[in-house]
Amino acid sequence: MKQFFLLLALFSTLAASAQVKTERKKYLRPKKDEECQYVQNVTKNTDEDAEVSASVTRLAYRPYTELLLELNEQRKYSTWADSAYQRRLNNLPAGGVLIVTMLRRGSTNANPSYLSLVVKDKDEKELLNIPSLPDGDGRFWNRDLYKSQRTIPFVKTLEPQALRVIINDAKLKEDFEYIVNTQ
Fold this sequence. Notes:
Blueprint: H1 2-18, E1 26-32, E2 39-43, H2 48-52, E3 56-62, H3 64-77, H4 82-90, E4 97-105, E5 115-120, E6 126-130, E7 139-142, E8 145-153, E9 162-169, E10 174-181
Antiparallel strand pairs: 1-2, 2-10, 3-4, 4-8, 5-6, 5-9, 7-8, 9-10
Signal peptide: 1-18
Keywords: Signal
């Protein structure tokens, strides 16, 4: 009878642990992202282990000044009408943009609607909360991985500061954490 209760306790513990988020390993100090100077990775989500497990999630930040500079450079080489330039200028987000890139195994797993995004300041005040990124599929990227990328308008801050960005993957049941230094 004791063995029955032990087995029952073991199975209930396994069932409860299957629904809990898995904790990602974190760096001792946030690691500067290789591709974006404004972003630091807190969780280990862009290393070789993440690529093997098909759970690479990368975040990039492009400030408004960089987007404006790019738009003005494009204007030099394009024959846009003034109205086209004004329309593009008015569509630039005042806080810049976040670019979320995910690499997953299988095209259905690369759907960004599995991701939710929360941005908090140093006082833990929530500045932006997106419960689900825009739906879509990925495209074949490398080996058996699919790549999906979404651009999200970012919030404008009055002064430069370090913001904490947490991306939750509902499919993997994992959180990816970043620090974004705004301009």
